[in-house]
Amino acid sequence: MIPNIQDQLASYLRDVAAWRRQRYQDDLRDPRNLRCADALEAFADFLRALPADDPRLRRLETLTMSGGVFQPGQQTAYEIGRFRFFSPEATFEGFLDRLVELAEADHVERGSFGGPQVPGDNPWERGASRGAGSSHSD
To answer: Could you report the per-residue pLDDT of 44-95, keeping only the tens digit for each?
Structure first.
């Protein structure tokens, strides 16, 4: 069976929920950790109930699945870990839309660790020049 985005994302969400439950056990015993964990588990159920052809799921699949595994970028992973932590009123529909936006941003930033570069100065870009005045030839 080929792993799908719904199963992979739901599994990831449940793992983060388990982490949030562990965080509740720290000295502060912050109840927001439990609220977040409950929300992530409910969101996982929500995702699994969506039609497989939901365009948001298809887009997340394109942006975050690698080798059959859900691999979110930094922004996406960060926000998943905070779902309903600070905003208990956040909706599942709105959060799914936001995850797609964040996955898009993560995808655009992939490999651009230093931020935007001066044209021709990005060493990871094909055809990048070797710098102004360079006389080195290949």
So the answer is: 999 999 999 999 999 999 999 999 999 999 999 999 999 999 999 999 999 9
Q: What mean pLDDT is predicted for residues 87-115?
A: 90
Q: Give the β-pairing of 65-66 and 69-70.
A: antiparallel
Q: What is the DSSP letter of 55?
A: H
Q: How does 20-59 read in b/e, with b if 16+ C-beta sit within 10 Å?
A: bbebbeeeeeeebbebbbebbbebbebbeeeeeeeebbeb
The answer to whether 37 touches 21, Cβ cutoff 8 Å, is yes
CB 81 within 8 A of CB 30: no
Tokens of 138: 């290949």
Q: What is the DSSP code string of 57-84?
A: HHHHHHHHEETTEE---HHHHHHHTTTT
pTM of the entire predicted model:
0.80
CA 45 to each of CA 10, 11, 23, 27, 42: distance values in angstroms, whole numbers, following the listed order: 7, 10, 22, 30, 5
Q: Please report which helix (H) or strand (E) contains residue 43, including its range.
A: helix 31-49
For residue 85, which of 24, 27, 12, 44 has the smallest C-alpha distance? 24
